[in-house]
Amino acid sequence: xxxxxxxxxxxxxxxxxxxxxxxxxxxxxxxxxxxxxxxxxxxxxxxxxxxxxxxxxxxxxxxxxxxxxxxxxxxxxxxxxxxxxxxxxxxxxxxxxxxxxxxxxxxxxxxxxxxxxxxxxxxxxxxxxxxxxxxxxxxxxxxxxxxxxxxxxxxxxxxxxxxxxxxxxxxxxxxxxxxxxxxxxxxxxxxxxxxxxxxxxxxxxxxxxxxxxxxxxxxxxxxxxxxxxxxxxxxxxxxxxxxxxxxxxxxxxxxxxxxxxxxxxxxxxxxxxxxxxxxxxxxxxxxxxxxxxxxxxxxxxxxxxxxxxxxx
Length: 312
Prior knowledge:
- The protein is an alpha/beta fold and 312 residues long.
- Helix content is 17%, strand content 13%.
- Strands 1-2-3-5-7-8-9-10-11-12 form a ten-stranded parallel beta sheet, with no helix packed on it.
- Residues 102-189 form the Disease resistance R13L4/SHOC-2-like LRR domain.
């Protein structure tokens, strides 16, 4: 296996390959052959999915200076090292399905980065330097342990697709609504209780998914003309704990939906709506008399029943 790996890398070096596939090799360490001598100066795309890597070499940028895409999906990497920030030409970085706990601030130096995938890791936070990624179009940080989004995320002015499903978010920062290019926002399976009222105001935002946020009970009005996913939102009502209300007319009894709940008790005295309105008018009329204002024109137009009540 080792000799076959060395041969594959040697051929890539001699023939100046731009793509190198090292998937499913059961690699536990970054191959030394890749870092030998001058490295692979012409390599642009490196695929190392489904291995057992735990870290990246500190000199990766020196040996692979023209790397544009790096795929490290399904390894055991715990920390994204500082050296990653020196891959100045990198446009796509996939670190999904690893054991990531820390993303170093140097990731903000990847000014050409367009697609960043960090799904299925153990991240509790992301550095604010993520906001320095001005060319970033796709950010997938789903299935982590995030309690909040990066502070400067709203500065990623090119961001179009943001996926933060299955985290521990309680709220969405209002400045997220400032993202001018955001087209799709997915926040399903979090702990959201409310959304910013401005969310959806941007014409670019067309798709919003907030499914399975059981504490979320309402949506901003701007989202009503968008494509929305909101199944499983709102705490389920336990019908057994709610007394069903009803009204009767002769032999007919109609039960109201369980969502309609009683307020107060049966002994509470509730004034009819018409009487409440008359009392308000009576109070307004007498206050106007004290102020020296006569509502003569209003009385002329008022119904007889109202006039009788006001003159009492």
